[in-house]
Amino acid sequence: MTARRTAGPRPPLLLALPALLAIAFLMLPLVGILVRTRWSELGEHLTTPGSLEALRLSLVVSFWALGLSLVLGVPMAWLLARVDFRGKTVVRSLVLLPMVLPPTVGGVALLLGFGRRGLLGPFLDDAFGITLPFHTSGAVVAATFVAMPFLVISLEGALGGLRPGYEETAASLGATPLRVFFTVTLPMVAPGLIAGAALTWARALGEFGATITFAGNLPGVTQTLPLQVYLLLQDDPEAATSLSLLLLVVAMAVLVALRGRWTSGHAVRDAPHPTPGEDPVARAPEPDADALAPSAPAGRWSLHAEVTGFNELTLDAEPGTTIAVVGENGAGKTTLLRALLGLTPRAHAALRLGDDDVTTLPPHRRGVAWVPQDGALFPHLTALGNTAYGLRAQGTGRAEARSRARLWLDRLGVGHLADRRPAQLSGGQAQRVALARALAAQPRLLLLDEPLAALDQTTRARVRHTLRTHLAGFGGVCLIVTHDPVEAVSLADRVLVLAHGRALQDAPPAEVTRNPRSPWVARMLGRNAWPGTTTVDGLKLAAGGSVVVAEPVAEGSEALAIVAPEAVSLHREQPSGSPRNVWPGTVREITAAGSRLRVLVTSRAAADVVSEITPQAAAELAIADGTDVWCSVKATEITLVPL
Ligand SMILES: Nc1ncnc2c1ncn2[C@@H]1O[C@H](COP(=O)(O)OP(=O)(O)OP(=O)(O)O)[C@@H](O)[C@H]1O
Question: Counting atoms of ligand 1 from 1, which one is nearest the CA of 344?
Fold first, then answer.
């Protein structure tokens, strides 16, 4: 047995015993069929005209039932998984009811609903001349009634497990809801759909109770294999055993096929992965962005957005501007992006891109492309298929879309990976493909949600470089949500600081670095920021101490004293001489920051003081966690920023 191959911990006896009993309980009846089958007569039993007719009928009925279940069940599963409506619980119970209802009761209910004297029967008879009972279509209806729930449950589960990011990204690339459903949703839930379809078919094939009650037992018309097994059991038990074996084998084959092919996700497991330690991107020559850029800007679009709701702010930007959106967790960064996409009821954006007002347009018609944090590459498409997706959705022909997509992949240095699926790409490669996909869709506004967050430091630096190069050629406005100060400062023309959904500061990086408007921004940018009230010669700190500055501001207002960590010197003895700001404190933490050390000192005067010193200085000072030190800052190194 395969379980032996993987040696795991021994299961507890108390669980293993009943489990083994359960296996025996399920196996015994099957073994009974196998043992009692007259193998010599098997061929004869299975090829009697009656058996062949019943088999034909079973196949016809079960496939029709599967078809009907797909046509009705797929939209039903979608409705249950995706749409919030009153009475959803009742509808779901209704869908599942046939699974728990005794099939004969189901048959009675079908008779009363669709039978000759049922609610709809006379109408079907008069209008279409259809009489379901004692007709093959009746057997189809009965089989569909009991089998469809398997499809709906399986598909609803698969749809519920699909993160909305994929479908939202597809919409942002220009795909209509129907296209998204057929090109993203359905392929991504294919394993669930196929498993549900197989179970539905197997259940329809084995249907007995509802069929005999509703459609009767007419040979050649409604007498399917299970009905024949039941009849034969009285007259010819050996033949009944042979037919049972046939049904058993078919059912088992379905389950085995399902396990092998559809429970392990997409069939990309066996595809070659990049050799560990060998990054194809590193080997591939970086394409010359300028040489490839000519066709890049297909237009120039400014941005004007007035956002209301959770976010309250107005954004104006010239074409080609890159804005880093920063803020604490929960500040409203994602909500702002979703408002611009038209994807959230929590905030509304009156949005103008270039000369066009796109406020009332649905997400797929706005020209706003979104790259979510994980890239959300469609796993069932290759890198090329992903990149061509937006162009195809916007009506570009297949060949043209693919050749343009290939160009974009080349531009981003991942052209050689065009035929790979996302599962075969490294994080950095996937980010580049996601970016290529967004840019290829020719958006008028580009939204990147923490594009580099998932990458390691080395890849991050490389992808950041690529990003900067390609954003330079982008003709629209680009918003990048980030928690990384290096990203904010190095990629953006402007930094938008959000707090509680509002713009706390919106200025060039240099200005934000020099004059951060909140302690959080200062800390994010690696600066000391101590709040306090201005005095004649500096600031009285909220923490208790005071600082003297070279250029005081008007007395009595709230302000932040901003100090770069490099400007804070540490001493073991109280320094004498020029620095006018000296406080005692205790070392709380020492961390590496590039080639320097970052030392956190807690002090009664300023609460937290961060100092950056060389490892050599740290060694000379012999500091460690808990060491008492003196901090000093020159008055000229302190900037006061009014709040
Ligand atoms: N669907 C929702 N329903 C209600 N409140 C929500 C919903 N989504 C987010 N919020 C709240 O709205 C606020 C802003 O959330 P948002 O996700 O925009 O923040 P963020 O700045 O992106 O945060 P983070 O840095 O953690 O990603 C938070 O207080 C959050 O709890």
Answer: 1
